[in-house]
Amino acid sequence: MLSTSYSQRQPYEYSWQLYERYKMALEESIASVMQIVFYSPVGFISNILIYWVEIWRSNAFNILFSASLPPPFTATEYIGMVCSKLCGSFKDAAISLINQERNGKQVQQDLLKNVLNFFADIGEGKIDYCKTFKQRMLEDAADYYSQLVSELLCCISYAEYIQKQASLDKLLEIVKWKLIGETAQVLIEKQKVESCDIANYQDLLSKYADMSLEEGSSVSLSNQWPMRR
Questions:
Q1: Are 15 and 5 in contact (CB under 8 A)?
Q2: Can you give the pTM of this predicted structure?
Q3: Domain Cullin N-terminal spans what residues (predicted)?
């Protein structure tokens, strides 16, 4: 029905009316999704991701932009309308989850990965949303660890902090060295076994290469190196 409405000619062409109704429905849908962020960041992010997939899978959405609507009414403009209203809260919710993980809480790793995929998908417009989100993540990480260091220095002296940090670095080096050492030893033993097998094989080849092809030698060869069954 929607496709038929768009394919009609004047005075029965209703593309603009359908466009306005679709735009109004989209704005109402965005407003309903926005209400979730105040209750649950996880629920908000999940709903945004589902909502975005539904938009792009919508046949109505595809028909809208296959119609002869003049600029700026394009798919990019729709992306901009959705992102301008949702991306700010979406970033806040994602950063909230990241901070929860830093504080030791269990979060859905796949959900955070999908957030990055979401910003990568919409990053082809006028605004590089993926780049701005990564910048926001870096800024938040810098603020978080700066505050963490300040809190540590308030509880312990600077010398104790340096000593503690040095101890951690030393422990990491010990662990790294032990893991590398054990792995290297396993590889060395494996190489020794392989080298030994190659040496034995080459020694056998050199012995049999010097043997004559007389009848006795053939029997001797078959006795010394029987065929596997």
A1: yes
A2: 0.45
A3: 25-165
Q: Which among 163, 164, 35 is positioned nearest to 93, based on CA atoms?
A: 35
- Among 75, 83, 65, 71, which residue's Cα sits nearest to residue 132? 83
| Alpha-carbon separation of residue 119 from 128, 223, 224 (angstroms) | 8, 72, 70
The closest of 68, 67, 145, 136 to 103, measured between CA atoms, is 145
Report, in angstroms and rounded to the nearest whole number, the Rg of the chain calculated over CA atoms: 34
State the first-to-last Cα distance of the chain, in angstroms, to the nearest integer.
74
- Calculate ∠ Cα 73-77-81, nearest 5°: 125
CA torsion angle 27 29 34 40 (round to 10) = -170
With contact defined as beta carbons under 8 Å apart, do 65 and 12 qualify? no
Q: What is the total residue count of the chain?
A: 229
Residue ranges covered by each domain of the chain: 2-155, 160-211
Enter the tokens of residue 188: 């060395």
**Alpha carbon distances (Å) from 64 to 34, 68, 148:** 24, 9, 50
Give the Å distances, CA to CA, from 95 to 47, 48, 80, 223.
16, 15, 21, 75
Averaged over successive runs of 10 residues, the pLDDT of the chain (229 residues) comes to 50 65 70 60 72 59 51 53 71 83 80 77 64 83 83 72 66 64 64 65 62 47 47
